[in-house]
Amino acid sequence: MRFGVPIQHPKYFILPKVGMTLVPKWLAGASLPILRQLQRERDFALIDAHYFFPDGVAAIRLGRQMNKPVVITARGTDVNLIPQIPGPRQMILEAADAAAGIITVSQALKDALVELGVAAGKITVLRNGVDLVLFQPGARDETRAKLGLLGRVLLSVGHLIERKGHNFVIAALPDLPEFSLMIAGEGPERSTLERLAANLKVSDRVRFLGNVPHAELHRVYSAADALVLASSREGWPNVLLEAMACGTPVVASNIWGNPEVVSRPEAGVLMNERSATGVAEGVKRLFDALPERQATRRYAEGFSWDATSEGQLRLFRDVINRR
User: Fold this and answer.
1) In the chain, beta strands by DSSP E
2) Low-confidence ranges of the chain (pLDDT < 70)
3) What are the φ and ψ backbone dihedral angles of 99, each rounded to 5 degrees?
4) Domain 140-303 classified CATH 3.40.50.2000?
């Protein structure tokens, strides 16, 4: 239950490795009884699906069965990775053709969909916003004292998997002797990352925080001097805006939606390359002209949810009126 709205999580069958193209069918089958019950209780005007595969493909099946228009939002991996697989790519293109509206969270994702063959005029770019109330500067000295932080502190946030690039941030530390690093997140790569830090003799400067509750992340952002995001794929990374909203500038890989988020000096810098050398160079460049934390916060204030929500409602109304 969120904001008084009940949320259902239908269970559906997944067959690892060989069942990928069947997942949309199984997801739609598990969701259909819920939608029919919802229609009996309180009819609805459209179906809003997030991620093209399998969710968007499943939503198109549901839309046909329920005679409802469907809007699909592309968010990242569903456009920059999954279409490399022929079967899902064809299903994504068919879903895009059948959708009444398409949203992407960055211009880079729109460009990728157009390159796949989706009509540009059908796609609306509505970038993610940031919760400026939850994420704001505060408790910096208190958190730093609690964590025993001294000197300049970098922060890397995200699931501990290869594509997030935590390994590059750790590997940059020998070239950044005055910096320590906090890593917030858990995942299968933790032991590998710990070994990397030990092999590079920087374990004493790397602190693994584990999973940090979303409601507590603002304290960690505020305590850091800079956030580093070295990921290989991002649609529109929320962590960048969350850090900026707390007054913390960023160093980010120059990929997908990142350049659209980090577009001014007060936001931070983009790496010249995604590597340990690129991280170290980016951090040095940022701290050679470190923006005021108040300026970074003001930059983030331009990304409230208001404009995004208004754009989404306009699209929904247009789809409903066209029906």
Assistant:
1) 47-50, 70-74, 101-104, 123-125, 152-157, 179-184, 206-210, 226-229, 250-252, 268-270
2) 235
3) -65, 145
4) yes
Closest CA to 217 of 155, 146, 154, 268: 155
Three-state SS at 48: strand
Q: What are the C-alpha distances in Å from 121 to residues 85, 111, 118, 125, 308?
A: 25, 12, 9, 11, 18
What is the per-residue pLDDT across 28-61, written as a single tens digit (0 to 9) for each?
A: 999 999 999 999 998 999 999 999 999 999 999 9
3-state secondary structure of 70: strand
Give the pLDDT confidence score for residue 37 in this predicted structure: 94
Nearest to 300, CA basis, from 223, 248, 222: 248
Write the CA distances from 203 to 121, 181, 197, integer angstroms.
51, 10, 5
Q: Judge whether 20-129+305-322 and 140-303 match in fold.
A: yes
Helix, strand and coil percent figures for the chain, each rounded to 5:
50, 15, 35
Dump the DSSP string for 95-111: HHHH-SEEEESSHHHHH
For the domain spanning 20-129+305-322, the CATH number is 3.40.50.2000
Domain ranges of the chain: 20-129+305-322, 140-303
What would the 3-class secondary structure string for 174-220 be?
Answer: HHCCCEEEEEECCCCCHHHHHHHHHHCCCHHHEEEEECCCHHHHHHH
Give the pLDDT score at 199: 98
DSSP state, 124?
A: E
Please give the pLDDT value at position 303.
87
Per-residue confidence (pLDDT) for residue 235, from 0 to 100: 67
